[in-house]
Amino acid sequence: MTSLSVAESTHSAHVDSFARDHLPPRDEWPELVFDLPDLRYPARLNCVGELLDKHVARGRGGRTALFGEHATWTYAELQRQVDRIAHVLRTDMKLVTGNRVLLRGANCPMMAACILAVLKAGLVAVPTMPLLRARELGVILDKAQVNAVLCARTLAGELEQVEGHPPVVYFDDPDHADGLEVLMARHEEAFGAVDTAADDVCLISFTSGTTGIPKGTMHFHRDVLAICDCFPPHTLGSREDDIFIGTPPLAFTFGLGGLLLFPLRVGAAGVLLEKLTPETLLAAIQRYRATVCFTAPTFYRQMTPLVPRYDLGSLQKCVSAGEALPLATRDAWKAATGIAMIDGIGATEILHIFISASGDAIRPGATGKPVPGYRACILDADGQPVGPGVIGRLAVKGPTGCRYLADERQRQYVLNGWNLTGDAYEMDGDGYFYYRSRTDDMIISAGYNIAGAEVEDVLLRHPAVAECGVVGRTDEERGQIVEAHVVLKPGIEASDELVRALQDFAKAHIAPYKYPRAVRFTDKLPRTETGKLQRFKLRES
Fold it and tell me: What integer is the mean pLDDT of 43-68?
């Protein structure tokens, strides 16, 4: 096993040292292991040089890199767009290396180019979900001390409600004199990838905590390549003739890897489409002759009965992650398509999938085994590894791991060098891992992580609500749904109209996918003698 020592840290290329200064103390990092030869990267490394520029330099610029609804770009065309945006960032916006750039946009080639340009220019990308509201964006802007924003014009509304937001350049706005496309047109020259250190932070991905306070997970240039060099070649079996497609947003590390980074690493193509439904995803697989699909179990469940309507002859591999995969969903999908679904568990803290199985290695009911490059075990309540047949805390380590941006919760996620994912698992005698439950109060609905406490905070702002408790309720279609238990203020009557009003109120203040799909009115909430809400009793009711 090869571990990273403090001495191996390299000189940063960042003029703005905010990201490095706000990494957790080194003794709070998980142990990083680099078992595979392909994971031993040079000290100086810019991930976009490896993912994009190298293909063009090797004469592969004519290959298709990205398909979109309104544009299809080859590797050479993508490189030109990335270089132009990088010039805008560094020359027109006058950003310096290490500055943070928040990104907002739906899945499309321009959003992908913006992300790659930020990384290539030696800046730090802070991608955000398109559905986030002003309140949520404000927290992220403040916590990451964002210096600038690249945003799709259609998503301007919520951003502009954030008081004192940083300078913004809008894209998908070709007629505006200060729009990104107009600024890009001024720059025709190539942009050389900044000579960053392999351990310079290039990505801050935010994930909800169980308290609703977002956590920024910090990833290096070498981390971006590491996730491309573990799961895709060893489990997925990615090839240069693959065409990747799926639903997760690029702001979600599941989507960033599966739809952009993984195809670029092997010279393949990605399909980036927004607002997909089960029907339109199936139609897109047929249209683009996609070979690899990434989505959550919810989508596979919804697509299964629709499969006979479409020609899916090109589809070879289907990856499910983001929430627990029911065996019934896996079996139904295989019966409909003949494809054995690849289940996987990943985490924003670890960047992508670290336990999975494919082909003949799939075992019914199991998530799989540690992906080559990663190690996993089950820990008991005392933090000690336990053997087969014992349910405990899933722990993992590998070339990537948790490094929270200036957050005390770092010590909760890392224990004795292991990353603790918040999942309860059981391992069998052959080393397969079986999901049992979450070990925290996180709700996972249709692949989205939702903090019950955040939904509670919003509902308590409604004038009719005296108290509320929010939990996840098992749901056949979405895995879990958000369920709110609400105590009304005196004189307020429960009604279906009030349920809809509370749901609409939540949608208006937080991302719509977080709203309570079920609302139950009650006279009181279960609490301890000290007043602590007993969510486990709500889940049992």
Answer: 98
Mean pLDDT over each residue of the chain, to the nearest integer: 94
CATH code of residue 101: 3.40.50.12780
Q: Is the pLDDT of residue 532 over 90?
A: no
Question: What pLDDT, on a 0 to 100 scale, did the predictor assign at position 118?
Answer: 99
Share of the chain above pLDDT 70, in %: 97
Q: Please tell me the distance from the alpha carbon of residue 300 to that of residue 335, in angstroms, as a whole number.
A: 12
Q: Give, as one character, the DSSP assignment of residue 70.
A: S
Q: Which residues of 237-264 are buried (b: 16+ CB within 10 A; e: fewer)?
A: ebeeebbbbbbbbbbbbbbbbbbbbbbb
DSSP 194-217: P--BTTSEEEEEEE--TTS--EEE
Number of domains making up the chain = 2
Please identify, among 161, 196, 228, the residue that sits at the C-terminal boundary of a domain: 228
- Residue 357 domain-assigned (yes or no): no
Query: Hey, which residues does 521 pair with through a beta bridge?
Result: 486
Residue 55 lies in domain: 44-63+73-228
Helices then strands, each counted (H, E), the chain? 19, 26
Q: Is the pLDDT of residue 526 over 60?
A: yes
Does residue 262 sit within a domain? no
